[in-house]
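Supplementary Text 2. Reproducibility record for the structural model of the 115-residue chain.

All settings were left at their defaults, and a single model was retained for analysis rather than an ensemble. We include the record here because the model underlies the residue-level annotations in Supplementary Table 4.
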Amino acid sequence: MPVLWFPPLVPPLAAEFNETPFDSVFQKLLDAIASKQNFETYMIKTIITDFRSFPKEVIVDADLKQAMTVFRKSFLASQQQLDTVVQKSLVPVKHTLGGIGGHPSMYGGWPLVLV
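Retained model, structure tokens:
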């Protein structure tokens, strides 16, 4: 009869480490996303929604129409800049966990590369 080997129960890796090399990179990404979302929420709920409430006379006035176009382009450019910051914050993080001996299923065994 074959002998079955089961690896010992190991706690989840996240439970072993309160701080990781990934924390600062993830936090930077989360902060960039939050800034973008806050701006977009303000832009949609306050500015763009209010454009509908302008009287028709404002829309036909050439100067006001030009001013609204500049205003809209400015908001969209700001939103694009925040989107670029988010995209640049999305970077791969590479870290190698290693230890001493043990079976490969244990954290102290073969190096584990996290990307």
